[in-house]
Amino acid sequence: MVPVLARLGLALAPAAMLGAYAAFPMLAFLPWIALVPWAVLYTDDRRERPSWAYYVVGAYAAWLLQYSQAERFGWYAPFLLGLAFLPWCLPFAPLLSWLHRRVGLPRSITVALAWTSAEWLRATFTVAHFDLYGLGYSQARFPIMVQLADLIGVYGVTFVIAGANGWIADGILTVRDVGWRRSVRTPRIAWGFAALAATTVVAGGYGIVRLQTIHTAPGPRLALVQPNLAHSPRNLIDVHLAQLLLTERGVPAGEADLIVWPENAILDEIRRDGAYLDDLGWLAREKGAWILVGALENRRDRPGRTTNGAWLIDTDGSIRGSYRKRILFPWSEYIPGDAFFGRWLPSAQRLYRWIVRLGWGFQPTGTPGDRAEILEFPWRGGEARVAPLICVENAYPPVPAAAGHDGADFFLNITSEGLVGGPVQEQLLRIAIFRAIENRMAYVRVGNTGISGVIDPLGRVTAVLRGPRGATIDTAGILLTTVPVAHLPNSPYARSHDLFAKLVLGATSLLLLLGVARRFRRAGAVAAASLLLAGCMAPPPLDGVADEVGGNLARGRVLLSEGKTGAAIRNLAAACATEDGCRESMPVLYDAYARGKSDDVAAATFERIAERYPALRPEALVAHGYFLERILDLESARAAYLASIDARPTALAYERLGRLDLREERPDDAVRTLRAGTAIAPDDLRLRYLLGRALWLAGDLGEGERVLSALVADHLEEASAWTVLAWIGLMRGDQDAAESCLRKALALRPVPSEARYLASKLALRRHDWDAVEGHITALRASR
Q: Which residue among 2, 163, 218, 749 sits deepest, i.e. has the most Cβ atoms within 10 Å of its Cβ?
């Protein structure tokens, strides 16, 4: 029992130290000793080699402690994410053990080789290259000692720290074996110390020279906007208005060359008619500066999919440049392996998607960009060039190196990290410091909640946005600052990227091959894995007992009223044992599914109903399409609506198809669809409103106004119709008519969000800040 506990203690000690550094970044000394217990455990020649299970447990615990903030997405999130990211954390101990036993080099060398190789493999091959805790990053706040990163990157600093860990492990085991006095005369201890001392002197001397010989000049003036707002699809309008108001109040006209909003500042299609570009163009004219903003773009070639981008807007409200994020954050921006599960394990895919929605509250829709971009904006009669980065793209060194390779003046990293917490944001700032040094280029960071600031080409933080009490995180404000530019040639690291790390990996591989050649022996490995998801999240059976249909239907309604959605669904599905029972059950079943998050199961359930009962096919296919829309399978949803219309045209099918046309920004198609619907149900309020809106978006203002005017003549309480009439009045240039319609919309209850947005747009242009604040407060209260 004692050896087991001792080994377990050695396996978990590094996890505790690495986790402590992650929680308290000021403990930057801990990485210099964190690997020692693992090195002792797996290179002790006087002990039998322990099971790899100890290291697996320790590595998993290290990941959980370093990324403990993942629990904010659900208590289970760290454990599931840890399993996904663990595989590329595992090579270190096997590499170290094999190198030590087969090559026999000092631990100061073998630990440095094994850890640096494993760290590069982890950053290169793990999901989305997500790796924030390379050892080298811990020393970012010591500028003299990390300037050599422009030669060998962060992995060079990692190599030195890992080597120090190996030297300490060598010392501990040597003292145990030969005693303290003899150990200091042991060659591997003496030479190891000499090598570390020489490395320290060289690194420090190089750092001093670089700090004294690299000079910067004042560059473009920036206004960094840190709104400190929750970005989600539910609060698009009030967040957009709040950011407009903050910028209008906080940026003096003529004091900035570029205004920067963070990632996801507009969590919507940037080109939405009459909305964001119009507002940003007005703001740019007011301030005399172009604006770079984080926003989404709908993929025209892939309905329901989006790209996360940085958009450069001029004073006319035109897009003058854009960059699409290339490295997406797994599970919040895309679902790794979703297509594989969909093809081979549909039941597992439903469970997988459900878990993602449970954690993040939505199903991600992102698709990646495919190239770096340089964006140019006016500066001093010419142009300034900026290399944009989004979110944690800066954590994978080759991406910034490629972005800055084509002559940019500085990096501009927009990000939104509201849920990750202060220590992670500090770590991301340290990563940014290394990217600035590696590429010898200033680095600007603009975060929704912080840390927003400027790093010069030497890795020194020259400006940080601070709140009234000095806080850099979870505070709103605007930082007016100037970028220090150096205009240096590409650094050796920028030209070679991760050459040093690749050389280390090559040396490690060569030593392993030599060791195998010298001491070849037969080895075997056994791996086992199982996925027990078949049948999970399957649609409930429709094969109830015919005589119990009435009872099942009644129980389903009662259970739904009590909030027991899962049990209600099972009873309502059982009521589909007969066609008549299913006809009566379907509306309640639809309501039950709509309240939950099992949209994949709902779509499959209504598809089965459509196949089983041809007479119910039109209604079932509409419900099938609706839930497909909710899981963003828009092409299949369109096919379902069209199949419903082919079976029997209904007003509901035309309405859903028309809404989908508008969602996909196909207003001309929507007009045709909705005209067909109103031919079936000319008095349907929803169809009439949607037709008027589609005509407006298609540019047919006269016909749209006629349709909506007839609607409000019959139904004065249709606030959404009054709002669109206000839009039409503005587009016609009839300000009085627009404001009259808008007053009518605002007087009704509930007030449409779009009406409050339009009222705020007009109030901003009048500089009526109190009115805008009132509308923002009302929007937040209505959520």
A: 163
Task: With both helix axes pointing from N to C terminus, report the angle between 701-714 and 685-697 in degrees, rounded to the nearest 10.
Answer: 160
User: Following DSSP, what letter does each residue of 388-432 receive, concatenated?
Assistant: EEEGGGGGSTHHHHHHTTT--SEEEEEE--TTT-HHHHHHHHHHH
Residue 359 backbone dihedrals phi, psi, to 5 degrees: -75, -45
Q: What is the DSSP string of 682-700?
A: TT-HHHHHHHHHHHHHTT-
In degrees and rounded to multiples of 5, residue 275 shows phi and psi of -110, -100
What is the length of the chain? 783
Q: Supply φ then ψ for residue 640, to 5 degrees.
A: -65, -45
Residue with tokens 């944001």: 425
CA angle at 627 for the pair 621 and 539, rounded to the nearest 5°: 85
> What is the pLDDT at residue 515?
63
- Residue 312: pLDDT above 50? yes
* C-alpha span between 398 and 112 (Å, rounded): 22
Residue 706 has pLDDT above 50, yes or no: yes
Q: How many CA atoms lie less than 13 Å away from 710 in the CB half-sphere?
A: 14
Tell which residue, 772, 734, 778, 718, has the closest CA to residue 753: 778
Contacts 24+ apart (CB under 8 A), 508-516: 508/95, 508/99, 508/113, 508/114, 508/117, 511/99, 511/102, 511/103, 511/105, 511/113, 512/95, 512/98, 512/99, 512/102, 512/103, 514/102, 514/103, 515/98, 515/99, 515/101, 515/102, 515/103, 516/102
Strand order in the sheet with 382-390: 375-379, 382-390, 410-415, 442-447, 453-455, 461-464
What does the alpha-carbon distance between residue 401 and residue 419 come to, in Å, rounded to a whole number? 28
pLDDT in tens, 601-610: 899 999 999 9
Q: How far apart are CA 586 and CA 609, in angstroms?
A: 9
**CA neighbor of 456 nearest in space, from 123, 147, 762:** 147
The tokens for 617 are 């096919």
Phi, psi of 415 (to 5 degrees): -155, 160
End-to-end CA distance of the chain: 57
- CA 605 to each of CA 145, 281, 556, 600: distance values in angstroms, whole numbers, following the listed order: 62, 47, 16, 9
SS3 221: strand
Please give the C-alpha separations between residue 299 and each of 313, 368, 537, 663, in angstroms, as whole numbers: 20, 11, 30, 12
Q: How far is CA 198 from the centre of its chain?
A: 42
What lies within 8 Å, CB to CB, of 201 at 6+ separation is none
Residue 662 backbone zone (phi > 0: left; psi -120 to 50: alpha; other: beta): alpha
HEC sequence for 447-485: ECCCCCEEECCCCCEEEECCCCCCCCCCCCEEEEEEEEE
Nearest to 221 by CA among 483, 445, 446, 485: 483
DSSP letters of 9-69?
A: HHHHHHHHHHHHHHH-TT-TTGGGTTTHHHHHHHH-TTSPPPPHHHHHHHHHHHHHHHTGG
Backbone angles phi, psi at 588, to 5 degrees: -75, -40
Q: What is the DSSP string of 593-623?
A: HHHSS-HHHHHHHHHHHHHH-GGGHHHHHHH
Q: How far apart are CA 73 and CA 68, in angstroms?
A: 11
In DSSP terms, 384 is beta-bridged to 377
Q: Which two tokens stand for residue 589?
A: 């079943």
Cα separation, 454 vs 464, whole angstroms: 7
DSSP state string for 275-289: SHHHHHHHHHHHHTS
Tens of pLDDT, residues 719-760: 999 999 999 999 988 989 999 999 999 999 999 999 999 999
Tell if the pTM clears 0.85, that is, is over it. Answer: yes
CB 104 within 8 A of CB 364: no
Contact 748, 719 (CB under 8 A): yes
pLDDT band per the 50, 70, 90 thresholds, residue 404: confident
Cis amide prior to 451 (ω within 30 degrees): yes
Q: Three-state SS for 384?
A: strand
